[in-house]
Amino acid sequence: MSELRRDPVLGRWVIISSERGDRPSDFIAAKPLPKTGFCPFCPGNEDKTPPEIDAVRDSCTEPNKPGWRVRVVSNKYPALSIEGDLNKRARGIYDIMNGIGAHEVFIETPDHDKTISTLEPQNMEQLMWMYRERMIDLENDERFKYILIFRNAGQSAGASLAHPHSQLIATPTVPKRITEELNGAQEYFNFKDRCVFCDMIDEERDYQRRVISENDRFISFAPFASRFPFEMWLVPKHHDPNFADLEDSDISALAQCFQKSLKYLDKALDFPPYNYIIHTIPVNTSRQYTYHWHIEIIPRLTNIAGFEWGTGFYINPVPPEQAVEILRSANGDSQ
Amino acid sequence: MSELRRDPVLGRWVIISSERGDRPSDFIAAKPLPKTGFCPFCPGNEDKTPPEIDAVRDSCTEPNKPGWRVRVVSNKYPALSIEGDLNKRARGIYDIMNGIGAHEVFIETPDHDKTISTLEPQNMEQLMWMYRERMIDLENDERFKYILIFRNAGQSAGASLAHPHSQLIATPTVPKRITEELNGAQEYFNFKDRCVFCDMIDEERDYQRRVISENDRFISFAPFASRFPFEMWLVPKHHDPNFADLEDSDISALAQCFQKSLKYLDKALDFPPYNYIIHTIPVNTSRQYTYHWHIEIIPRLTNIAGFEWGTGFYINPVPPEQAVEILRSANGDSQ
């Protein structure tokens, strides 16, 4: 079983996984994505994954058989294990607990060659719906404090299989970055009596030059202090701390805004590697209503150098206003 | 001039640099390191860099001519500019200041083909001495709050020239990660009345299985909660918050411990890309004596995926105890 170890200076928890290589060379190079050959996520190969946890299916089809639109399974090589207890303890001066958690995979479409920006709109809605359902279900497990949904698109963004998929990891501690965001939003609220994300939405709608996509319910923009070239945030216009509270009636607006943002990116930069991450409030702990859920999309265009690692202080060579200009002009949008 | 922009949620400052590309494709791929051809850092090409700020030189040689052992020049494409004032101001709801700072390059050796682990020991000492001298000098500029020294080794660690070099960036704000470390060390001190780094040194010396190198004055080890495979920290055994207070008499011990650690890494993993970063206290602000300076060495073996970006919560597939076993056995060290 993997371990969770706490950095004694920063309080950051690290998963030390028990997956092991035998030789130093096993750690050196990322394996290239297999382009052809057998794919365990394609229809017909359902028995090559762990059993189905949930799925959106055509009527009258059986679990673990073809006929699904979106399929959720456990990760075959999970970073955290679902069985067991945390057994929080000391090791010398350090703090440690068992690597308990959930690690699931969303197989986003039966079609091996799609990506988010080219999914059928209905399929994208089914995926958003499934994200919400898995969050709601896992919140029932009181060992978990956070449910993280993310997507690694492309090998240099960390993907190890080409078939379109995203992932969920439920963790027994609140990740450090999330705690910082919660604290930041609370401090802003204490000072201004307003939500910082709501203020950002107003500012971006006024300024317009960083806006990528907007509909009745959602807006996406390149954040003012973008860490990375072409970074995008997608934010609900109505204040809501919790992704899992997403209304059925908002799902199609979310899918539309999300897909349009990624279409702009894929068109302008020819399907670059990227990550996206849903940022939402922790579960099974006091709810913080000053937070505002959102999705951060991070294209992986530049190497992160020592300066960034050492400081959390990023150098971004593309001002967000210029990034949006490029996105718009590549997409024939003369807004 | 570049800008410093503050993330309104996290308080993190980002450098938005004014270096611009013209087309989207300019942002997509890192350029490969030139292997051959002209090198502006090689002896004889001193006029191809900005003028020398400082150097360790053979006697009777002139600035900006050959005869140097370590040479410091301004970065030709600086992320921050030395001239001007900060002009802190609002932009809409956001905070911004001018990109004022220093950005210098340490050309570590005249020999294009060396790396830290293969430098002559005397050359390594000259480099450590020069790191200290530049810190002491730049502290006199009251606009600066932090002086960061780091090295990007190898293209995937962010190096853009092959000739051995490291860099210094002086910033007008204290980087977020450093503030967090200062706070973490202070909290630990408040609770235990001891330095967390001093405690770690004792624990690692007792446990031995994570120790990589140790001499009278310094120790290097794989930290208990390593974020990355083969991560190493090098720490002075005597409590000291400030790298710039390094005694002359400690320089050779530092150089020896540092080189041995990197030799182990280069031997075991065949000269992998890595970053190292000197972590020390801020300047021109109240000094925090509960901090303990150290150097973090981060091999760049794995891709950082969405999970890590979203959370600051890392998955490390190589337990530090196993990493040290591999380092030792590759170096014939049966400790």
Give a brief description:
Two copies of one chain form a homodimer. Chain A is an alpha+beta fold and 335 residues long.
Tell me what the structure shows.
2 copies of one chain form a homodimer. The first copy, chain A, has 335 residues and is of the alpha+beta class. Chain A folds into 2 domains: 3-16 and 37-171, HIT family, subunit A (2-Layer Sandwich); 188-303 and 312-330, 2-Layer Sandwich (HIT family, subunit A), CATH 3.30.428. Helix content of chain A is 25%, strand content 23%. The first copy, chain A, has a 10-stranded antiparallel β-sheet with strand order 3-4-7-9-8-13-14-12-11-10, with helices on both faces. Chain A has a 4-stranded antiparallel β-sheet with strand order 2-1-6-5, with no helix packed on it. In chain A, a hairpin with a 6-residue loop joins strand 1 (3-6) and strand 2. In chain A, helix 1 (121-138) crosses helix 4 and helix 4 crosses helix 6 (320-330). The termini of chain A are far apart. Chains A and B meet through strand 1, strand 2, strand 8, strand 9 and helix 2 of A and strand 1, strand 2, strand 8, strand 9 and helix 2 of B.
